[in-house]
Amino acid sequence: DEIMLKDLALEKDLLMMGPDCGTAIINNIGLGFANKVRRGNIGIVGASGTGAQEVSVRIHEFGGGISQMLGTGGRDLNPEINGRMMLSGIDMLAKDSETDVIVLISKPTTPEVTEKVISRVKSIDKPVVIWFVGQMVQSSEGNVHFENMSKNAALKAVELAGIDRSLLDLHPLNLPLIKEVKEELKPEQKYIRGLFSGGTLASEAYFITKEKYAQVFSNTAKTKENQIKNLSASEAHTFIDFGADEYTDGKPHPMIDPSTRLERFIKEAQDSEVAVILLDFVLGYGANEDPVGAFTEEIIKAKAAANEAGRHLEVIGYILGTDLDEQNYQEQLDKLVATGATYASSM
Question: Model confidence over 132-144: pLDDT tens digits?
Fold first, then answer.
């Protein structure tokens, strides 16, 4: 059905955004889950909803803006669909006079589909930034720039758009804090648990962790040996996308209703082997009106219970949003910090 619909769209010179497309910004109007960002000269084509949101808010944070953000649906770069809408989106942005830089975002795909996309962008005369989650190498080939993380993709995009990178606050790692936390952990506290409402953020954290540790599992993993075996129980380092079909069957998306993810947080916080819990909080159109507020009481209780048990529980939270979003970014940040959690400027 998806192939038929996208072929029909191509015949009519139209976009087919989906199925499984969670976000877009068309002519400065957000569709689905989208954030309020300034207008600018950077266009995004995303086969990944939260990934496109993440890069758009980071571009905004770094002083850039979005011309168009075209969602293709998460399966567009699957071999069967073969990048039909991403290739069409590239062609549209290549012709768009308001777009000077193009960013492409996708979850992992096959080398054949990746090469088809790269071949297309090499034929246009605009710089292109590619962030395909899981490809952990940074490189450049002519007008094409490959980035390994969302933050770096946004940085490269704004730099190509004319913004002086040296003037930006890049939020360097707080190494003294990291050392302090490590010293507080018990020897048995060995594991990271990531509980995400955004699938691309879960994937990104999964791949970053795999660079350093063995036994890393996720429902976003493509390899069988790294797939979660039990949806209701974690093992070793586990990263969960609670927006995936297996967690949302008959339930609202966790960006709207945090209850399923909150229940899992309470459970993970009681595990004596857990050292760190990662949480994302997504702001913007369609999202919960107070995503951090839904977790504050339980974060405070979990950290206090761990302390009473003689261990330290490190909760790290990332807020995906802008200063223009209705939920009020600063208020959300203040609530997070007040719980004793650590704020991370990116995943």
Answer: 999 888 999 999 9
